[in-house]
Design a protein that fits this description.
371 residues, Rossmann fold
């Protein structure tokens, strides 16, 4: 606890007079010069409530003491009252600039000295207590923030696990798409990162892209509710069968609505957008809602193109795989429906990355098949 008063003056008479005025209220420390004052402040810095400092002293004067106190940051917690007679012009200004709190004029007036010391000690005591409280509260907030970050990470892991589990269920049902989800995730990330770089107006960030990539695994979750006779049919679907197949978008949303209370709101929102709208097209001729233009969520636009590309370059029960060039030209030309001009521009720039990922995934599948 800070309670001591340090009196620094090369004249013993001045030190004794100030001691007589203050010793009933405070423990007194004395220093007869600047060098000793610095040593005592260093030794008792957590105990000193105020320093009464004479400026004119041999060898190490009061200004040198102030300079050391400022450099050591002692002035933040220990106020200084300068002992002075009639000061020269500019001295007070210099003292205030160096961090002095106030002045005690000679000859000493007992009441003024006591009140001035008491006021500054009380003020700094309150200030120091307040700073300690703020520091403790800051530490508490840091700990709470760290805990929230840990909880958010755990929630993120839970979200990812939920998505992966549901995606795995779809893979097990839909025999043609064993690696489909993994590839769509990869194509989604490539396209989303290109969108982030080229079109900042969409507000895509690394964090948002991570959510979109993770949620892309659920784009076909509604196929859980599609009968095997339609889902696994090795031939072209009839008109009625195709209409039923299209319902996987809305049926998937029903699945997601039933689990909305067990995962993060951001993941739920993006997953819903992708599941429902990844077959919408920019000209409004997609399904299920016939959304057009920028009314289609950007997450669904990105995943829609990634899904279409993978469908083209992959073998399915009802068709063979197109080459990367054929798939690229079919999408750009609008054979798979109309995509946003901005999305297509990013697709053109990312063409090589799409092809590299498709080739790498195919080679990986071949290795696994031979193992």
């Amino acid at each position: 606890m800070r309670s001591k008063v340090l009196i620094v003056d090369d004249l013993e008479l001045n030190r004794d007079m100030l001691t007589a005025i203050l010793e009933k209220d405070y423990p007194i420390l004395q220093a007869d010069g600047g060098r000793k004052a610095i040593s005592m402040i260093q030794k008792h810095q957590d105990e000193i409530a105020v320093v009464l400092l004479d400026l004119i002293m041999p060898e190490v004067d009061g200004f040198a003491v102030l300079e050391v106190m400022r450099n050591q940051s002692w002035l933040k917690a220990i106020p200084v009252l300068v002992i002075t007679a009639e000061s020269k012009p500019g001295v007070e200004s210099k003292c205030f600039e160096m961090g002095v709190s106030d002045f005690i004029k000679k000859p000493f007036d007992n009441a003024i000295v006591r009140n001035r010391v008491k006021n500054i000690v009380d003020l700094f005591s309150y200030k120091n207590q307040l700073e300690e409280k703020v520091e403790k509260q800051t530490e508490t907030l840091k700990k709470q923030y760290k805990l929230l970050v840990m909880q958010a990470e755990k929630l993120k892991e839970s979200n990812t696990k939920i998505i992966d589990i549901l995606g795995t269920v779809v893979e097990c049902r839909n025999l043609e798409s064993g690696e489909h989800i993994k590839r769509v995730k990869g194509f989604t990330r490539i396209l989303a990162e290109q969108m982030m770089a080229d079109y900042p107006e969409y507000g895509l960030t690394k964090e948002k892209i991570d959510v979109i990539v993770s949620a892309s695994a659920l784009h076909d979750v509604g196929k859980i509710a599609i009968p095997d006779s339609i889902l696994l049919k090795p031939a072209r679907l009839t008109k009625d069968e195709y209409e039923y197949m299209k319902s996987h978008t809305t049926r998937g949303c029903e699945v997601l609505n039933n689990i909305q209370d067990v995962w993060d709101e951001a993941y739920g929102k993006v997953s819903y957008e992708i599941c429902r709208h990844h077959h919408e097209r920019y000209d409004g001729k997609g399904y299920p809602d016939g959304l057009a233009g920028e009314n289609i969520p950007v997450s669904a636009q990105i995943v829609g193109l990634a899904d279409a590309y993978d469908a083209l370059v992959s073998e399915r029960v009802y068709k063979g795989a197109y080459s990367a060039d054929e798939a690229f030209h079919m999408i750009v030309s609008g054979e798979c429906g109309v995509f946003s001009p901005k999305i297509l521009e990013c697709f053109r720039k990312a063409k090589r990355k799409f092809e590299e990922l498709a080739r790498a995934q195919k080679q990986q599948q071949q290795k696994e098949g031979m193992a």
